[in-house]
């Protein structure tokens, strides 16, 4: 049974990535966490402001009430609408800021705890500053991973995540394995949420 301390996890927009003649057509998955704090993870491109604001309104959330904006890394399709959330603390990769104040935190050694149910951990690989948001609720542990996983298909075909770009394939593989070992659900950067099938 859920409590007021639980977080409701809503994927506002499911990300995608498709090769086209000019390059790539892509946008990231954008996720809303509603609980003791209001949190948005990965804010899509700078052209998505109106539809993101509208989507939040459908969930009775005003952009001025968002407490934390967390971007799993600094690529433009993950940070584009950060400007909408002027009252929030922003975590972009392993950088934390609020307005013009920047905070020092060692993500490599410690999780950044927002509260007992939400934390941010370092998962470098796709970029060396990548982070993952871990959310505990009645459904288990959900990992919002950005481009650590492109989509569920890259579990079977590693070319998918490697072709998307990786600053360190070795670190990315290590952190993919780490998340697969602890998570019940994964929300990837460019695909639908999926359940982790644990090998007994």
Report on this structure:
- With 200 residues, the chain is of the alpha+beta class.
- It has a single domain (8-195), classed as Ribonuclease Z/Hydroxyacylglutathione hydrolase-like (Metallo-beta-lactamase, Chain A), CATH 3.60.15.10.
- 16% of the residues lie in helices and 34% in strands.
- The protein contains 4 helices and 15 strands.
- It has helices at residues 49-58, 76-79, 159-163, 169-182; strands at 8-13, 16-20, 23-27, 30-34, 38-41, 68-71, 89-92, 95-98, 101-103, 112-115, 118-122, 131-137, 140-146, 185-188, 194-195.
- A 7-stranded mixed sheet has the order 1-4-5-6-7-8-9, covered by helices on one side. The protein has a 6-stranded mixed sheet with strand order 10-11-12-13-14-15, with helices on one face. Strands 2-3 form a two-stranded antiparallel sheet.
- Strand 4 and strand 5 form a beta hairpin.
- The longest helix is centred in the last third of the chain and has 14 residues, at 169-182.
- The two termini are 26 Å apart.
- The model has no long low-confidence stretch (mean pLDDT 95).
Structural class: alpha+beta
CATH superfamily: Ribonuclease Z/Hydroxyacylglutathione hydrolase-like
- Assembly type: single chain
Outline the biggest β-sheet.
7 strands, mixed
CATH fold group: Metallo-beta-lactamase, Chain A
Subcellular location: Cytoplasm, Cytosol
Organism: Pyrocoelia pectoralis
Catalytic activity: a ribonucleotidyl-ribonucleotide-RNA + H2O = a 3'-end ribonucleotide-RNA + a 5'-end 5'-phospho-ribonucleoside-RNA + H(+)
Protein name: Metallo-beta-lactamase domain-containing protein 1
């Amino acid at each position: 049974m859920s409590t007021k301390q639980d977080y409701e996890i809503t994927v506002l927009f499911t990300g995608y990535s498709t090769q086209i003649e000019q390059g790539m057509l892509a946008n990231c998955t954008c996720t809303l966490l509603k609980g003791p704090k209001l949190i948005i993870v990965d804010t899509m491109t700078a052209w998505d402001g109106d539809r993101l604001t509208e989507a939040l309104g459908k969930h009775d959330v005003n952009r001025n009430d968002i407490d934390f904006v967390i971007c799993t890394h600094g690529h433009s399709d993950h940070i584009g609408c950060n400007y909408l959330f002027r009252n929030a603390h922003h975590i972009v990769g392993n950088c934390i800021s609020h307005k013009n104040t920047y905070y020092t935190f060692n993500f490599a050694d410690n999780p950044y705890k927002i509260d007992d149910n939400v934390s941010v951990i370092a998962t470098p690989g796709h970029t060396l500053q990548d982070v993952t948001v871990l959310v505990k609720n009645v459904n288990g542990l959900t990992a919002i991973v950005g481009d650590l996983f492109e989509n569920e298909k890259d579990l079977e075909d590693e070319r998918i995540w490697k072709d998307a770009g990786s600053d360190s394939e070795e670190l990315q593989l290590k952190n993919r394995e780490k998340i697969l070992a602890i998570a019940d659900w994964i929300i990837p950067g460019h695909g639908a949420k999926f359940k982790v099938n644990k090998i007994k």
